[in-house]
Amino acid sequence: MIRFSNVSLIRGTKVLLEGADAVLNPGDRIGLIGANGSGKSSLFAVLRGELHTDKGDADFPAHWRVAHVAQETPALDRPAVEYAIDGDTNLRILEKKLSQAERENNGNLIGELHGALGDADAYTVRSRAEQLLVGLGFRHEELAMPVSSFSGGWRMRLNLAQALMCPSDLLLLDEPTNHLDLDAILWVEDWLKRYAGTLLVVSHDRDFLDGVVNVILHIDQKKLRRYAGNYSDFEVQRAQSVILAAGQREKQERERAHLQSFIDRFKAKATKARQAQSRMKMLAKMEDLAPLHVAAPFSFEFREPLRAPNPLLALEDADAGYRDNTGRDKTVLRKINFSLQSEQRYGLLGINGAGKSTLIKTIAGELKPLKGTALFNKGLAIGYFAQHQIEMLRDDQSPLWHLQKVSLGTGNAPREQDLRNYLGGFNFPGEMALGSIANFSGGEKARLALALIVWRRPNLLLLDEPTNHLDLETREALTVALAQFEGTLVLVSHDRHLLRATTDQFLIVADGSLRPFDGDLDDYRDWLLKKKQEKPENPKPIAKRANDKKDLTARVKRLEEMITRLNARKSDLDARLADTALYQPEAKESLQAVLLDQAYVGKELSQLENEWLEKQAQLG
Hints:
Layout: E1 2-11, E2 14-24, E3 29-33, H1 40-47, E4 55-59, E5 66-68, H2 80-85, H3 89-103, H4 107-119, H5 125-135, H6 152-165, E6 170-174, H7 182-193, E7 198-202, H8 206-212, E8 215-220, E9 223-228, H9 231-243, H10 249-269, H11 274-288, H12 290-295, E10 313-323, E11 329-340, E12 345-349, H13 356-364, E13 371-376, E14 382-385, H14 387-391, H15 399-407, H16 416-425, H17 442-455, E15 460-464, H18 472-483, E16 488-492, H19 496-502, E17 505-510, E18 513-517, H20 521-533, H21 542-577, H22 588-619
Parallel strand pairs: 3-7, 3-8, 5-6, 6-7, 12-16, 12-17, 14-15, 15-16
Antiparallel strand pairs: 1-2, 1-4, 8-9, 10-11, 10-13, 17-18
């Protein structure tokens, strides 16, 4: 078990933990939660042996193997699949020892090492690594590409793959879903449910925590508090304890009444669509948890839009895309016919790279349609949140400077004190509103970007992954605010809780087109699984077929290389088995190792040959 006994932890002048105790049992799947800066990453560093407690002990069995996700990825020429396999450090050590033994022609050691490699599942490691990378969103033709060719987000996926490839007794995952889209998150969820060791995960994705963990460890007031159950169970227990706190009841009742009023209005106009019913359930649950909203560090709400023209905008026979570095048009979505009416609330679904961000940018007017028309109503006021909006913030300026700049074009200039009061509502109090944002965390910058959007009083919100970098409490504040927003919303997010609570209809971007999705997020999960399994019934466009054929050809070539290598290995083993010396009593262990090796090679060869036949059949 993991035992924290009277642990105190200090970083710089800040006390993170003081006299903290907790016991975690083998096989527990633990969600570690707490406010930003409360000490979650430092506690991970203690468990990795990179940081020592200032007082007390943090112990777990010495023989436990610990795996974690590296935060840096060197720009290596090493193929992605090999980089993933590198996560199994014991296997790589055995391979090096085997190479050395073969160079020295040490027969006994060679036999022992082949046995050890068999025990380490060395002969299925490549297929396991490939399945893992494909599950994380990599295409088959990308598996042989060098690590250096991938962007930062995809390199973090490679680091996650390394951690999951490493046989471990304790797995430490710090925000594993940050760089994943929804289908990859669902895949990781399923993988972690089958993980046999002890899992400790930090995540701001509440649905992910609900799906994976059975214990919550909360860093609260410099103590460690253990709760049985998943994150939703923790919320209920916390709400009950907050209710007991003195001086909170009146404030809680106001929050509950505010939410109840909105729920009643929403019920009056809600459709029977499954998404709308999902939102109804989420709003009812949020009402029950009103005490937690009151106890949160801050909350905010979107002011009612000044006007609501109808329709807000329309795309007619529009092709959405962009112009590449060579000046050529790259079409991502074709023949879009779509209009946005006042108070519609859409969640945008689709796998990574399908074109969701391209569509959002087209609706925002940042990308002009390559074909067709985009009509924008004169009264349209857009609030657009995306990662590049955060990057456009000036590091050398203050939150107040940014807000003053935004407020210049809104009529009468507001008083500085009013602006500072507003920023205080977004948890930028006092001097924090006046200093530069150079040292702000990603979450603080995202919160500032949201504050600037709310100030403009938009009637259309376009939000592309707004929860990246936000902690759980800030996400919940955003969820409550968006749930009650009176305008029109288009949301791209891998946060399923946010999607359920704030949208009434889903659109799906797939196969180069935009269409309604008649279902809820459970249906979308089923759709993803079905899409991975089924063969397309209708002929694909010529360009798509060409790309698929290219992918298949690359995979066939890769399979042929692997089969050739394994056949050479099999021939070597057959030659060794033909050597009569191997059947002498003193060579008994070497014989067993060679036979085991032969069995593994035969099994993997059979799998690869079957896949080769299948791919050849698809090539026709």
